[in-house]
Structure to design on (401 residues):
């Protein structure tokens, strides 16, 4: 399958996924009258399944037909979309949303492993770059359409549209794997340095993806509490919630575009740290913003860190000699762990301390703690000594600041 086909599949599936995850918080908040802690538990039920099954499916994706794993993921998503509107309580919803987590666990490791296997070493960075841009575009659009359609047509109609999107993927995705190119996907970095930066990027992505999930999960409560809204219609707060998430993840998409054309960021610490400081600043600003337009201005600060964290993690995860499905599964499990831990903690703090700003203080603090943990990993790895004693054959592969 050509790269354009993988990109289209990623765009449509992430549109489906985050169209759905825009509807769910609004459904819990408005229809089921759930509190912040219940919102976070709904997210957690999906994330737990996603974490465990991403590792399992990632290993399977190295040995079985990947297109059929993709189709299984789409069918599971269709089931989730059709069942969610029927949930009469938050408890019933918690039993249904694991289908959405399982669908992602089938889809993402299989598609990413297929791209890595077919690309070869010369094209991997380019192909993954375009793939990141397209799925992120689908994610940002999904948040906007999900919130808008939920407000205008209700939960059932909004999720029926998502189910149709998942069904479309099953029709255009190929029936069989395309043979790989048989190349080892490696760069010129020393294996010890590569392993060090892979661990650092996993820490960053754990927090960054969890931060994005916590915002998507909890921000609706802060918007309603402060009456932050924009536009007209039956639910201007819900529309603004979707618009804000669209702006955050559109900024993430633009970060992927920039990284597609900018070289020299690999195997250096300062881009990782700068992106995370930007995200921490934007998240702190969210806690104090009371005006819709002012809050929208901080979205690029958040999106930069989210985009850089994901791009770095998948880059280092796939620049391995083999086992692309396995490493892609680990990458997805780690970001899924962030999706579990940070929203769950954020919801608990907001509910038990009675202050809806706590999720954003927590996320900013976790981001700063991640920088400290990454620096500790770097220094304990011996990468500094390795830099002083060796010269890498590729300039962009030299470990440093």
């Amino acid at each position: 399958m050509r790269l354009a086909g993988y990109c289209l599949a990623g765009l449509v599936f992430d549109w489906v996924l985050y169209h759905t995850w825009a509807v769910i918080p609004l459904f819990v908040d408005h229809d089921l009258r759930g509190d912040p802690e219940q919102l976070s538990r709904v997210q957690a039920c999906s994330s737990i399944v996603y974490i465990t099954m991403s590792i399992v499916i990632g290993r399977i994706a190295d040995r079985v037909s990947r297109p059929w794993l993709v189709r299984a993921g789409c069918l599971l998503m269709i089931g989730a979309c059709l069942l969610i509107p029927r949930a009469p309580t938050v408890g019933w919803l918690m039993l249904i949303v694991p289908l959405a987590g399982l669908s992602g666990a089938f889809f993402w490791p299989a598609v990413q492993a297929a791209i890595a296997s077919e690309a070869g070493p010369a094209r991997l960075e380019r192909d993954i770059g375009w793939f990141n841009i397209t799925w992120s575009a689908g994610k940002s659009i999904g948040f906007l359409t999900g919130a808008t359609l939920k407000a205008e047509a209700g939960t059932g109609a909004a999720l029926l549209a998502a189910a149709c999107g998942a069904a479309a993927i099953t029709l255009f995705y190929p029936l069989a794997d395309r043979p790989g190119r048989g190349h080892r996907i490696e760069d010129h970095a020393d294996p010890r340095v590569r392993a060090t930066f892979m661990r650092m990027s996993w820490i960053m992505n754990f927090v960054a993806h969890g931060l994005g999930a916590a915002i998507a999960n909890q921000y609706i409560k802060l918007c309603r509490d402060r009456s932050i809204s924009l536009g007209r219609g039956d639910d201007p707060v819900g529309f603004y919630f979707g618009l804000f998430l669209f702006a955050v993840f559109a900024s993430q998409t633009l970060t992927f575009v920039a990284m597609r054309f900018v070289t020299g960021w690999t195997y250096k610490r300062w881009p990782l740290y700068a992106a995370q400081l930007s995200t921490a600043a934007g998240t702190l600003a969210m806690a104090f913003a009371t005006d819709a337009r002012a809050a929208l201005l901080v979205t690029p600060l958040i999106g930069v860190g989210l985009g850089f964290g994901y791009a770095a993690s998948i880059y280092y995860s796939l620049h391995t000699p083999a086992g692309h499905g396995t490493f892609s599964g680990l990458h997805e499990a780690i970001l899924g762990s962030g999706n579990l831990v940070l929203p769950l903690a954020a919801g608990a703090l907001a509910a038990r301390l009675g202050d809806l700003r706590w999720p954003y203080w927590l996320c900013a603090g976790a981001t700063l703690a991640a920088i400290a943990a990454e620096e500790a990993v770097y220094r304990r790895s011996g990468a500094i000594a390795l830099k002083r004693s060796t010269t890498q054959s590729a300039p962009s592969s030299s470990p440093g600041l």
Remarks:
- Residues 191-226 form the longest helix (36 residues).
- The domain at 3-174+186-397 is CATH 1.20.1250.20 (Growth Hormone; Chain: A;).
